[in-house]
Design brief:
Helices cover about 35% and strands about 25% of the residues. By secondary structure, the protein is α+β, with helices and mostly antiparallel strands. It is globular and about 50 Å long.
């Protein structure tokens, strides 16, 4: 998953950025980590906390957003768990504006207004003794969070979206398109939110058609 803070460059171009940017990032990263833990847990039980998807194993800040990696092949991480990661990220994206920005310290002016999220499943390779990772799926996720007119999209490859029992989110709230992605030779099937597609302008709709 690549999570991008929309408008972060403009936010950093304000006066007195050395006052606001560190304060904003401290609050944002703490909120994001807390949100991931919250979204990944189904309920509290006497024996501990029941997870409905594994927690990520790697998080890296990349200047204007974060790279978050889950082990999609971990024991117990079945098709339901993989879909839950997608649903979790969408919930966090929504909560950024409805929750985080509303509770943000009033000392921070003109914060990034939205989160943009791109997801892709694939193989990653460890570099620097596990301090970083590379892989085509990371590059794809970075491209997906920049798709025209949307803030949430994912490559459908490796996700069983039409499986019996899939949540309504996957059967009713998404629409799929074959789109070109910069740096990739073939078009990729990606899913975006129907609600965002319905609000696209004519130039953006032409991209998806």
């Amino acid at each position: 998953v690549v999570v991008d803070l929309e408008g972060f460059t403009a936010f950093c171009d304000q006066r007195e950025t050395l006052v606001m940017v560190p304060a904003f990032l401290k609050e944002f990263i703490q909120w994001l980590m807390d949100s991931i833990r919250k979204q990944m847990t189904e309920q509290e039980v006497p024996a501990g906390i029941a997870l409905w998807a594994h927690l990520p194993f790697f998080v890296k800040f990349m200047g204007d957003g974060l790279l978050v990696l889950w082990d999609a092949a971990a024991p117990g991480m079945d098709s339901v768990g993989r879909r839950n990661v997608i649903a979790c990220v969408d919930e966090i994206r929504r909560a950024y504006t409805s929750e985080f920005l509303l509770n943000l310290s009033d000392e921070i002016s003109f914060p990034p207004p939205r989160l943009r999220c791109g997801l892709s499943r694939g193989v990653v390779y460890s570099v620097g003794n596990g301090n970083d990772f590379v892989g085509p799926c990371i590059n794809m996720a970075a491209r997906l969070q920049k798709l025209p007119g949307t803030t949430f999209s994912f490559c459908t490859r490796g996700f069983a979206l039409t499986e019996n029992g899939a949540a309504r989110f996957f059967t009713k709230e998404l629409i799929c398109f074959d789109v070109p992605l910069r740096g990739f030779r073939e078009r990729e099937q990606v899913a975006i939110l129907i609600s965002e597609f319905n609000q696209l302008g004519e130039s953006d709709i032409a991209f998806y058609r």
